[in-house]
Amino acid sequence: MRKTLALLLLLALCLPLAAKNIPADAWQTGTLTDSSESWHTRGGGAMTGNQYGVHGAMGSHEYPIVQYTIDAGAYVYQVNLVLHNDRAKHPAVTVKAPIKFAIEKSDFYIQDEQGKQYKLVLDKKTFKAN
């Protein structure tokens, strides 16, 4: 039972890492105008009680969120990349340089300078008035 549970957990963690095949005509080019990083903390805990007393444990986990601003002509997109730990690789991108991006349904993807794809979360889409 434990082996099956461990295998299911491992598969669940690996599935988001699988690259999605995005059609070549879905990719657009914009300009990366800004990049910033902020750190967030997620905490949790548990308490149990028995005839010997109440016992508990708490823990926290810090992780960075990188926010990118992409100017795509008519629209400006603010997107977030949630990194799971401080050792996770940042995309190799340059501010004030062209960047390739794609929007598939509600998913937002970017390509770094080596062509590696990253899935991000669309935070805000702003229409630029002429």
Short account of what is shown:
This protein is mostly beta strands. The protein has one helix spanning about 1-15; strands spanning about 30-50, 55-70, 75-80, 95-105, 105-110, 115-125. It starts with a helix and ends with a strand.
Topology at a glance:
Blueprint (H helix, E strand, L loop, with lengths): L1 H13 L13 E23 L2 E19 L3 E8 L14 E8 L2 E5 L5 E11 L3
Tell me about this structure.
It is elongated, with a radius of gyration of 20 Å. It has one helix at residues 2-14, and strands at 28-50, 53-71, 75-82, 97-104, 107-111, 117-127. A 6-stranded antiparallel beta barrel has the order 1-2-3-6-5-4. The chain is built from 1 helix and 6 strands, in the order αββββββ. Helix content is 10%, strand content 57%. 8% of the residues are buried. Residues 7-11 and 14-18 have low confidence and may be disordered. By secondary structure, the protein is mainly beta. It has a domain at 28-40 and 62-130.
For the largest beta sheet, what order do the strands appear in spatially?
A: 1-2-3-6-5-4
- Using only C-alpha atoms, the radius of gyration works out to 20 Å
On the 0-100 scale, what is the average pLDDT? 83
Sheet with the most strands? 6 strands, antiparallel, barrel
Order of helices and strands: HEEEEEE
